[in-house]
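Lab manual, section 2.4: Encoding a predicted structure.

Procedure: take the sequence of the chain (386 residues), apply the prediction step described in section 2.3, and record the output as structure tokens. A sample record is shown.
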Amino acid sequence: MEADGFVPSSTLESPAVERRVTGTIAATGFGILGNSVLDATGGFVGSFTPRMTGEPDFVSMLHRATPEPSASVEPEVDYEGLPQGAASSTHMLAGAVAGIMEHCLMYPVDCVKTRMQSLHPEPGARYRNVMDALQQIVRTEGLWRPIRGVNVLAVGAGPAHALYFACYEKIKFSLSDAVHPGTNSHFANGVAGCAATVLHDAIMNPAEVVKQRMQMFNSPYRGVLDCMGSLLRQEGPAAFYRSYTTQLTMNVPFQALHFMTYEYLQELLNPHRQYNPSSHVVSGALAGALAAATTTPLDVCKTLLNTQEAQAVHVIPSRYISGLSEAFRTVYRTGGVPAFFKGVQARVIYQMPSTAISWSVYEFFKYVITKRQHEKRLRGDRDGDK
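Recorded output:
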């Protein structure tokens, strides 16, 4: 006769018996198979076989098999998995701080890059390399000249990077779950980077125009407001977005390549996706260098559209250089293929620390903010239990 949970040894191999035993274990926490007692995981607990001298009895084995109550272990903070309802604000705040620091700290090198991309540099603005350019600018134009215009860039970088990172994280996780649930998707990273760039550039483009006009050698503007007013009076509102399509054409592949490379390197250097400053710095720097070198020709065209360099404008019949195709033809007529790589050294030198700073600061603030929210939630849970 078979009682519930008891199985004759002659039927041990039957699949039906195996299912019944499993069901009994699931319902009661224990099951009896032949002369053996199994726990909820199927592990051996005790036996009804008469014990030999010196062997422990069943009761003592069952008692020892009962698991000890484990002390409550506080879960590790997973800063990649942000608390519900706080993700967007966390990403926006972290992104804003990262963007401002990135652009402000590397602004002098950005000034050099703009000047080295000039198609017809004046005699006083011809430089051998980045260090030579910085030394000449400080020596001939003053100590503060390399950071002229940094204020307008800081104002634009805050909201631009806030939307940039928030949009990127939201789309990345949503699309990754749809394409490859539970895994990282390079396709999702690339699409998220492209979508975030559209919002970022819509805010940054006017700031970029003003910034580059003030960075040029012998810039005629007294300050940011004077530059903005002069552009509105002489060239109209369209001047602030003349390079927008070119900037998107450059930044969409730039950011797609940048994010895909960064996420790929994170998989190699930081597979558990923990807060690891050194991996964020290395991944960000290498991703930025590769993306910067690849898109330099488009950056040269963007600089020409933003600055409307006088010597280059005289080459064409129209009053202003407008559109990527016209900028492309102007650059090629002026200096051939090498002209498309003017300032590539300064661009890579600018982008490597720039993206390293951006990612490390972003990941740091994301970690700190998430940790504080996690601790606040734990305090609330403890207070609720009292």
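Check your result against the sample. Residues 88-362 form a domain with the Mitochondrial carrier fold fold (CATH 1.50.40.10).
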